[in-house]
Amino acid sequence: MLVDVLIVGAGPTGLTLGIDLARRGVDALVVERDGRLFPGSRGKGIQPRTQEVFDDLGLLEAIRAVGGPYPNRTVWRGGERVGEQPVFDRIEADEGAPYTEPLMVAQWRTQEALYARLTELGGKVAFGREPTGLDQDADGVRARFADGTTLRARYVVAADGGRSAIRRALGVGMAGETVDPAPFLVADVRVRGLDRNHWHMFPGPDDTYLGLCPLPGTDDFQLQARLPQGTEPDLSADGIRKLVAAYTHLGGDAVTRLRWASDFRPRAALADRFRVGRVFLAGDAAHVHSPAGGQGLNTSVQDAYNLGWKLGAVLRDGAAEALLDTYEEERRPNAAAMLDLSTGVHRGEVRRGKATVQLDLGYRESSLTRETRAHPGPVRAGDRAPDGTVNGVRLLDAFRGPHWTLLGAQTTAGGLRSLPAAPESYGPGVFLIRPDGYVGWAGETARGLRAYLSGTGLRPATNRPATA
Predict the structure, then answer these.
(1) pLDDT tens digits, residue range 200-232?
(2) Which CATH superfamily includes the segment(s) 69-100+181-265?
């Protein structure tokens, strides 16, 4: 069997990449070691930038239907509420950023929505397929599986988590540090005796705590606990009940069901490389982190979104293979910054809010970025392209789909959608928007646009309509 792209791992990273490739007509297969999708709530925050990505991929409404806003945190001591505060600093929405509040969605719900969208587009996931090794040559990669079968692909993407078997098979190192020496526990539970309008926090001695957060779209609470150093977390139902009884006024019998549980020790680590030949690392296979601030799942989705259009450009649109080198160039620095941010939030050095919504991330230093104006305005090449309205057309609607978009000039070039003007909020100039919603090129006029596309080896799609 031969496929264009083999994606190892059916988590948010692998499913997002599968969706992006499916809509581009790329023959991709997602394989998952387990026999089902991940069953827990672990990564529950969907940041505003990721909401824009999901809007583009056609699944934001499905995500919003099973999610909701973050509730305020309320603190309990001795069975009494002693305080309440929002989880995030509020950011006012404006025309350029229609989504500014994170959504809370249990990870298993997010993955269900991603899986449904992938299958709707004709994509496939093969469950119970565990990779054991791979070999690559100049033309492709041969992956070996535990059942003795093999599969050949032109490219492989490792999206198989922090203990990535593919990363280990490649011999790629992962340097990092311990963020917190204490053991942490997370679980999905049913609990009696608490309202579902607050994230309930129960502080303990020596900076330990237990939290119970209602999960929208479910009847569950997510339990989070920081335990004393040297403690071995007990993930059984009885262990969870004892923990609730020790930290709260509820008593252990308030826990009526344990759906899922896991333990971890927060660590920040970054893979030495994101690409080895025809194999790419994405998501937790490339970066592991503290869950504080809700950055990990979102950064992983951004990895997939960055890589998807580039693989599509090379495999379907005739772009130069060297374009794929820019995946590591662009995403590894962003992942490094995310690790610093998550660690800062975990240690109380950075507030959740403007710093964590991911709307300010960009690629100004990328070799794909060209800013040719003598006096750039508020929006520069490499920046996220803000929303806005041009002649009654909303920009996020115009950007939706696997095409490039030109603002401020008309063009007849295949694969480009054009609008004759850019919003005043962008400042003067002409802007070429990449398929992933970032400004690739900006100029005083459209002169130099074709040279940019030629010089970077890019060829916007000509074999399908721009609205595909």
Answers:
(1) 999 999 999 999 999 999 999 999 999 999 999
(2) D-Amino Acid Oxidase, subunit A, domain 2 (3.30.9.10)
Closest by CA to 334, choosing from 369, 308, 301, 303, is 303
Handedness of CA 220, 226, 228, 229 (dihedral sign): positive
Architecture of domain 370-455: 3-Layer(aba) Sandwich (3.40)
3-state SS class at 88: coil
d(C-alpha 195, C-alpha 106), whole Å = 18
Q: Pairing relation of β-strands 370-371 and 439-443? A: parallel
Those residues with Cβ within 8 angstroms of residue 434's Cβ, 6 or more apart along the chain or in another chain: 309, 368, 404, 440
- What residues pair up with 176 in beta bridges, in sequence order? 269
d(CA 347, CA 364): 29
Instruction: Report the b/e string of 351-362 with b at 16+ CB within 10 A.
Output: ebbeebbbbebb
Each residue's pLDDT tens digit, 304-343: 999 999 999 999 999 999 999 999 999 999 999 888 888 8
Kindly give the pairing relationship between strand 184-191 and strand 174-178: unpaired
Which among 178, 102, 55, 51 has a CA at the least distance from the CA of 355? 102
Q: How deeply is 239 buried, as exposed, middle or buried, from its count of CB atoms within 10 A (0-12, 13-18, 19+)?
A: middle
What is the C-alpha to C-alpha distance for residues 253 and 261, in angstroms, rounded to an integer?
18
Domain boundaries, the chain: 2-67+105-174+268-346, 69-100+181-265, 370-455
Kindly report, residue by residue over 283-307, the tens digit of the pLDDT.
999 999 888 777 889 999 999 999 9
Task: Report the alpha-carbon distance of residue 164 to residue 160 in Å, rounded.
Answer: 5
| Options 3.40.50.10320, 3.40.30.10, 3.30.70.260, 3.50.50.60; CATH of 2-67+105-174+268-346 | 3.50.50.60
For residue 314, CA distances in Å to 7, 121, 318, 448 come to 17, 20, 5, 22
